[in-house]
Amino acid sequence: MTTTVIQHVLGRLKDLGITDIFGVPGDFAFPINDAICTDKNIRWIGCCNELNAAYAADGYARIKGFGALCTTYGVGELSAICGIAGAYAENLPVFHLVGMPGLATMESRGKVHHTLGNGEFDLFYKMTEPVACARAIMTPENCASETERLIAAARYYRQPVYMAFPLDYANIQVLGKADPIPTPPSDPASLEAAVNAIVAMLSKAKTAIIMPGKITSRLGLQDQVAELINSSGLLYATIASDKTAVDETHPNFIGIWSGQLGIPDEAQTFVEGADCILGLGAYMTDLFFGIIDRSKTMNIELHSVRVGHSVFRSVQMADALAELTRRLPKRTDVKGPKPVGLGEPEGSDNDPITAQGLYPRWEKFLKPNDILIQETGSSTFPMISARMPKDSVIYNQLLWAAIGWATPAAFGAAIASPKRRLVLITGEGSHQMTAQEVGQFERYGLKPIIFVLNNNGYLIERVLCENPGIEYNDLAQWNYHLLPAALGCNGWFTARVTTCGELDAAIVTAESSKTGAYIEVVTKKYDSHPTIKLDVQVFLA
Amino acid sequence: MTTTVIQHVLGRLKDLGITDIFGVPGDFAFPINDAICTDKNIRWIGCCNELNAAYAADGYARIKGFGALCTTYGVGELSAICGIAGAYAENLPVFHLVGMPGLATMESRGKVHHTLGNGEFDLFYKMTEPVACARAIMTPENCASETERLIAAARYYRQPVYMAFPLDYANIQVLGKADPIPTPPSDPASLEAAVNAIVAMLSKAKTAIIMPGKITSRLGLQDQVAELINSSGLLYATIASDKTAVDETHPNFIGIWSGQLGIPDEAQTFVEGADCILGLGAYMTDLFFGIIDRSKTMNIELHSVRVGHSVFRSVQMADALAELTRRLPKRTDVKGPKPVGLGEPEGSDNDPITAQGLYPRWEKFLKPNDILIQETGSSTFPMISARMPKDSVIYNQLLWAAIGWATPAAFGAAIASPKRRLVLITGEGSHQMTAQEVGQFERYGLKPIIFVLNNNGYLIERVLCENPGIEYNDLAQWNYHLLPAALGCNGWFTARVTTCGELDAAIVTAESSKTGAYIEVVTKKYDSHPTIKLDVQVFLA
Q: How far is Cα A64 from Cα A413, in angstroms, rounded to an integer?
């Protein structure tokens, strides 16, 4: 049996654990679309548009390690590109399969549909360069080797890969063979020097803290991270974007550290006062780390280790974790604060829903093993401070911070992990961007619990901008609770709640609902939680 | 009184007739957002997301000649880029105002939100290069001159322009002054040679036909085109994408010519048998023009004239039209076919809605002065064949052909021309892409009539692909007629019609409705109109 170009690529994607490909079909992509739909071990997951497909693949990759989407030429790939950029920023290896016109068409330089009409056919390939770690136009001759090169790049950089398939090449038999490219090993001397440096700094430190990053679990290293924490006895905290990188119910967990954006608490004080901080792939943005002396921080990165101002190249994360676990003595003298969470919810019965009523309720609502997809916005900050139950995870997108990400990302996460309870918390402004994807949950038999916080505008912007009441912070006034029915989520539990009593009742119903649930939570326009301490000078510096 | 960078730019955009700017606010764009909202002569038009804002600006520019949108850095501008590319392909001068971080932030190369985290701040500016005819990062020093350069480029190329505003520069006083750059005049010798060549070819032609392009009306030359047709006595036809470039009720109009995609009819035969074809900015894609001998065709383009294989450079369209009107003798011997339209609608009462029942009804429903926004898809082809009433116009997007364009473009067109009746015809697959923008009509007091053709999937793809029933052509099953209420269009007339009788009744109600109207028209899965004669070999060649 022969293997075509597209079949070969799909086969290798399956080897990575990809069993679902998100996308929107299109004529130039028909060979890819056909190959996906006729492959028994891979599912075509139709999305409403390509941006949503990219966000869905992002959500999927957060859980499965890799994701994929398929779009058509020009119109499709450019619609997705903001989502691909997000995956690049947030270190998610998403394979972007793009159908392109046939070679003869491209050589004719014709005014072809889905082009700019100027006879140029390589523009979109060029435009994607900054947001892909590797790219190729797949042909029968290069398919075997390029597929391995691109997979190796996705594994190495943990960023998106772009693969274009000319219409007349996708179904041609692959020529030649290529072996998978092994992951580069650590340089033994560099590894030893790096681990020596970490051990030395830790041994001198009176107080030290580990900062595990979420990328460790995407690499399948979550057990190694837990082992290092257990064997070293060190305490750990996480940065907002790495929240739940390690279970928050572990006794060594002290809380979240939000750097310049955080509210001073015991965890903040402990982190900032520690003699040293050891990041394990921690997502060290300047916003968070700018206030800590670099000489006190270390970070084990994907392929290097930084200790203070020294960088040790060619050290693989898994090797560094293993060596540290072997060499670090167990400390028994550590003492730190306990994570506190959001406290008791305020209000009951007919009381309006305030921030202090809402967020503690959401915290209590979360259950072990939940997946919480948290949109960027005014609900981000309090939910970062919420205590997460055992084995539950929260995903957010704090670097790229594209509002609208969460709704389709939640869909992608649900496809990746259909048996876990999926909770989406989004503001209504963000939700408006990509809300149509709610209909896909029902189409694919998924039963999320969706909370849409309706505070009559972009609250996070009201907080940040000069004149909170200015018109651009206003939105079209939707009747959100009517949306699921319009989008085909027939029979879902939906509610619009304005009082604490209604919210409590809706949560009870949602918890026992056999269908998806969609709850519009109405609060006052300017009611923000005290954890939103956004200093504009810091945020926009 | 001082003028800031952003105030200066807004002032010049107003000079072009732009009174509304579409967009989504964002922190790096606050100075732009603020300046728009505080300017009494310009409106901020909030959109649900940036792609929709770009499509809305496209629809606006089709009517007003120029359009504008405002997005934030990275996440905003990349979300819009597919729509900007469409405006580029379709020759629509849309000003894309982008808020970017302040200079100090960019120089710090920090891991800033809305970036890729790699310290690079010029990537998005670079990515936009292929889809903008001119670009600038606006500073107090360059503002006066760059604004004129960019406006001149937008006028000259009729394509989008990209203007980025660093956060800390937007509100600084403009330094220096610059005069508007005049439009280049025609080269008198080239103009004379071009007109001589056209007159010579026409005088030798026994049968000739004019093909007016829609770009003439965007240049404000519609009266000159009509004058040329009247004074020359020549017949005219239009290509699908130029339909209604000149009123279809004019006695010299013979019909539409769809080239290789057309159904042979009298107009097709006449065009293809004519001794010469004179395009007036006709949108001559290869798909349409590939079958006609180039030596028989002429086209007056924006800044040049092509006669057969000869190109005359530096000839401005207005000058060529004026000269031709002066010099062409009036022909009285011309005879051609009459446009035929779609015929009488089939079916009544409880008959299901077939294509032959639907499209003739839509044709009859259209009224003088209507604006019809026509989505790309299975409804495109029959509606191209429909006869359009006096002073009505149809807009489509046949080169870029991004499905999803029509719903936001209709919103933009309605903002540009709120007093004319606006009709949107879209397929449901396209509608799902951008449907949330329906809520904006109500928010801004607009009352469109929207038809959503629900044929249970992407019908145009079922026609084109190998296996019409394949899964990727299926969609989430929405209850479309419930959507307006969910999106806040309270009290709109909505209906779901499955029989000819229901359709007739819904049309009657929509026509007299004081609110917006939204009608879901349900047809069979594979019921396509005979005008859809898509030869896959041609379409995907």
A: 9
SS3 state of residue A496:
strand
Chain A positions touching B402 (Cβ under 8 A) are 74-75, 79, 114
Cβ-based neighbour number of residue B400 at 10 Å: 25
What is the rounded distance in angstroms from the CA atom of residue B44 to the CA atom of residue A458?
15
Phi then psi for residue B329, to 5 deg, are -70, 155
* Chain B closest-CA separation from residue A260 CA (Å): 13
Partner residue facing A399 (CB), from B24, B113, B290: B113
Ranges assigned E (strand) in B403-472: 422-427, 449-454
Residue B387 token pair: 């006869």
Categorize the per-residue pLDDT at B290 as very low, low, confident or very high, splitting at 50, 70 and 90: low
This model of the complex carries an ipTM of 0.97
Query: Which residues pair with residue B495 across a beta bridge?
Result: B519
Q: Is A287 helix (H, G, I), strand (E, B) or coil?
A: helix
Instruction: Record the tokens describing residue B45, joined without a space.
Output: 């038009």
Nearest chain A residue to B85 by CA distance is A116
Residue A507 has pLDDT above 60, yes or no: yes
Q: Is the pLDDT of residue B533 over 80?
A: no
With residue B43 as reference, give the H or E element that holds it.
Answer: strand B43-46
Residues contacting B280, CB < 8 A, separation 6+: B210, B211, B212, B213, B216, B225, B228, B245, B299, B300, B317, B321
C-beta separation of A430 from B466 below 8 A: no
Contact (CB<8Å) A37/B470: yes
Amino acid at B200: A
Q: What is the pLDDT of residue B291?
A: 74
Asked if B486 lies within 8 A of A478 by C-beta distance, the reply is yes
In chain B, which residue's Cα lies nearest the Cα of A102?
B541
3-state per-residue secondary structure call for B280-315: ECCCCCHHHHCCCCHHHEEEECCCEEEECCEEEECC
A454 φ/ψ angles, rounded to the nearest 5 degrees: -105, 100
Query: Among B192, B265, B205, which residue's Cα sits nearest to residue B235?
Result: B205
Give pTM, 2 decimals: 0.97
- Number of neighbouring beta carbons within 10 Å of residue B495: 17
Nearest to A521 by CA among A498, A541, A487, A489: A498
Given the DSSP bridges, would you call strands B276-280 and B297-300 parallel, antiparallel or unpaired?
Answer: parallel
Q: Which amino acid is at A24?
A: V
What's the rounded Cα separation, in Å, for the pair B348 and B303?
52
Residue of A78, A285, A404 lying closest to B49 (CB–CB): A404
d(CA A208, CA A278): 8
Are B470 and B477 within 8 A, CB to CB?
no
* A116 interaction partners in chain B (CB closer than 8 Å): 85, 88-89, 130-131, 400
Give the pairing of strands B310-313 and B43-46: unpaired
Q: How far apart are CA B207 and CA B201, in angstroms?
A: 11
Token readout for A359 is 């967020």
Q: Which residues pair with A78 in a beta bridge?
A: none
Question: Token match 């991270």: residue?
Answer: A225
**What are the tens digits of pLDDT across the range B494-518?**
999 999 999 999 999 999 999 999 9
Q: Which of B160, B123, B164, B153 is nearest to B5 (CA)?
A: B164
Longest dimension (CA), chain B: 74
Cα first-last separation, chain A: 60
Mode of pairing for the β-strands spanning B276-280 and B253-257: unpaired
The pLDDT, as a whole number, for residue A211 is: 96
Q: Which of A30, A117, A485 sits opposite B465 (nearest CB)?
A: A30
Task: Name the more confident of A539 and B216.
Answer: B216
3-state secondary structure A254-268: EEEECHHHCCCCHHH
Residues with Cβ within 8 Å of B308's Cβ and at least 6 positions away in sequence, in order, are: B201, B294, B295, B296, B297, B298
